[in-house]
Design goal:
Blueprint (H helix, E strand, L loop, with lengths): L1 H10 L9 H9 L1 H6 L4 H8 L25 H4 L2 H4 L2 H17 L1 H11 L3 H12 L8 E2 H11 L3 H16 L9 E2 L12 H7 L15 H14 L9 E5 L15 E2 H6 L3 E2 L5 H4 L2 E5 L1 E4 L3 E4 L1 H9 L3 H13 L18 H13 L13 H13 L10 H9 L2
Antiparallel strand pairs: 1-2, 3-5, 3-8, 4-6, 6-8
Helix pairs in contact: 7-9, 7-17, 8-13, 9-13, 9-17, 10-11, 12-13, 16-17, 18-20
């Protein structure tokens, strides 16, 4: 009877998942590169044994399927009011103030050594992993191996895979705790393996860089990454301003830089009083919702944060959260947009703008500064209302433009 029940149970088990020979061959071919990076054969064999690709990840190029994109990434599909949600900012700001006291000694060292404010690295920690409360879903090694095999950025992830193996070989973290986002960013402040080696800091002095469990190490590493990318101590990330009625939203590109005082003389009204030194700083105009929502004058440090994460909304989130830890109060101008075009629609818009010679950047479905400015230039040429905000109506107009 028992034997019969066992046979029945076995009969209803799901069949074993078939191995992917081509993927296995690809991984095996990377051994010489791993060996050259100092990875032991034992680690390579142990960590790659049974490794399988994850074809459900975004950003892959698969035969017979259209390229998958990061269409669900919040920074690029949510309107600003949803992404920079006031309730979330307020909650994280209060928690950040508490953590600032708890980690005061480490944060003082970080400010002294790297020139990055404590509130800024805390804001990055809060945005990336909710101060360590949110857990990454993916096995880092599997992610970077898959992206190296069939991702849109194969060459980059080939290196990330080798360095992920090196992290495991050096015992910096155990495999079961080596979790990441779908793009391979790992740890409390979300570093790719290459960033771990470029910017990792052992601030707690235990002899290893631990961005997964050590708050001092993770925050110092985030600060060093910003410093290495050009952070200017004593300079704010941006200033909120009220835009004049005749504001030209097509000027909102990084290349158009003017001293803040010049922007003010053109009618942009600062929310806070600015010193003469601040007014002398060069800045670019940022209008995340075109003419409808808040406007900002962004400094060099804005673009340094943008190298941590390319999204304008990400920078607004961490910059504003950093401010809120020391100065309560939401943005002076409220957000107003209620809908955001789908990634595929923004891609179509970018293709039309490229065809018309107005856009010369990547076709990536992300309505960033360059896309919004190009859209405004089209609206000018077509006699439409110039608001620099992607909408279905403008997309339809573009589709019929010659």
């Amino acid at each position: 009877m028992i034997f019969g029940l066992l046979l029945s149970a076995l009969a209803f088990q799901a069949p074993a998942r078939a191995a992917d020979p081509a993927f296995m061959q690809f991984v095996a071919s990377l051994w010489p590169e791993a060996q050259a990076a100092g990875v032991s054969r034992e680690t390579f064999e142990r960590e790659t044994r049974g490794l399988e690709p994850d074809y459900k990840l975004p950003d892959l190029v698969l035969s017979g399927r259209s390229a998958t994109g990061a269409s669900a990434q919040a920074e690029f599909v949510q309107v600003p009011a949803d992404y920079v949600r006031e309730a979330t900012i307020a909650r994280l700001a209060v928690e950040g103030q508490r953590l600032m006291q708890k980690h005061r000694a480490a944060l003082d060292r970080i400010e002294n050594e790297f020139g990055v404010p404590a509130t800024m690295v805390l804001a990055i920690w809060g945005r990336e992993t909710d101060y360590g409360r949110s857990s990454d879903r993916y096995d880092t090694l599997r992610v970077v191996a898959t992206q190296a095999y069939v991702g849109r950025r194969k060459d980059q992830y080939r290196g990330e895979f080798i360095l992920a193996l090196k992290i495991l070989d050096e015992g910096a973290v155990r495999r079961k705790e080596f979790r990441s986002s779908w793009a391979g960013a790992t740890g409390l402040t979300q570093f790719l393996p290459s960033e771990y080696y470029k910017h990792g800091v052992d601030l707690d002095g235990d002899g290893r860089v631990d961005i997964w469990h050590s708050v001092p190490d993770a925050l110092a590493s985030a600060a060093k990454q910003l410093a290495d990318k050009g952070w200017q101590p004593g300079v704010r990330w941006a200033y909120e301003v009220g835009a004049p009625a005749n504001a030209d939203c097509t000027l909102g590109v990084p290349e158009v830089q003017r001293p803040i005082g010049e922007w003010l003389r053109a009618g942009y009204a600062p929310v806070q009083r600015l010193s003469a030194a601040e007014q002398a700083q060069p800045a670019s105009l940022l209008q995340p919702e075109g003419i409808y929502g808040p406007s900002f004058l962004t400094t060099k440090n804005y673009f340094v944060i943008k190298e941590y994460n390319f999204s304008d909304l990400y920078v607004l989130f961490v910059g504003h959260l950093s401010d809120r830890m020391v100065s309560p109060g939401p943005f002076a101008t409220p957000w107003s947009a209620s809908t955001q075009l789908r990634t595929t629609s923004v891609e179509a818009m970018q293709r039309h703008l490229t065809r018309l010679g107005l856009y010369r950047d990547k076709i990536d479905g992300k309505a960033g500064m360059l896309t919004r400015a190009a859209l405004g230039a089209y609206q000018k040429s077509a006699g439409l209302k110039v608001d620099c905000w992607p909408s279905e109506a403008v997309l339809q107009s573009l589709g019929t433009a010659r």
